[in-house]
Amino acid sequence: MQGVLFDLDGVITDTARFHFKAWSRLAKEKLNVTLPASFESDLKGISRIDSMNRILKFAGMKNEYTAEEVNELAQTKNELYLNEISKLTQADILPGIENLLDELAANHVKLSVASASKNAPFILEKLGLKQQFDAIANPAKVKHGKPAPDIFIEAANQIHLTPQQCVGIEDAKAGVEAIKAAGAVAVGVGDANELHEADSVVGNTSELTYSVLKQAFEK
Ligand code: G6P
Ligand code: MG
């Protein structure tokens, strides 16, 4: 294991509730629909524009907006979301993550971020973690979002490794699929049934340690 490819939302910090709050408000105010609670988990790992399209489909409004209008709606959601995440601090780092990053660095493992979020650099800055990573893959540079492997391949590239030399960590089903499609070893965080495609699953981030990742890699 020479590198670890980290998802951000749900692995490093818990932003799913902020995404859901922003999407819910947008859906209510602009589309006059109420999103069911299941959308919080269904939209995990899904890019901003793909999420917007799923919501329009749910609202039965997929054909009512031009591509430009869909972009504007997604932009409005992002403004609502940015307002939510402006309050993030080091206290919002999920349990065990700071320790894990220290352990990995001490073992000369390279660290790269493979998030679909265009806000990843801003969030890492807020959490005080930006310097800990060797690279942050830019989701604007890749063609296909998760579950396609693109962002994990790019994250490995950025640290000059192949996905086969890396472990990927994900909390979303689409993300685990993306790691596997890239050819890296997948460690899931969350529900073992939902993430059954992962090579190894832990219940929460406090169980993520260097030795757990190394064991998953060597299995
Ligand atoms: C992550 C989240 C998704 C989000 C996506 C894009 O994958 O899990 O819920 O839609 O990033 O985030 P962004 O900050 O670019 O809108
Ligand atoms: Mg995630």
Automatic annotation (TrEMBL):
It comes from the Bacteria. Pfam families: Hydrolase. GO terms for biological process: carbohydrate metabolic process. Binds 2 magnesium ions per subunit. Keywords: Magnesium, Metal-binding. The keyword NAD does not apply. Mg(2+) binds at D7, D9, E170, D171. The active site is at D7, D9. GO terms for molecular function: beta-phosphoglucomutase activity; magnesium ion binding. The record marks S115, K146 as: Important for catalytic activity and assists the phosphoryl transfer reaction to Asp8 by balancing charge and orienting the reacting groups. Substrate binds at residues 7-9, 23, 43-48, 51, 77, 115-119, 146. The keyword Membrane does not apply. Its cofactor is Mg(2+). Belongs to the HAD-like hydrolase superfamily. CbbY/CbbZ/Gph/YieH family. This is PgmB protein. It comes from Pediococcus cellicola.
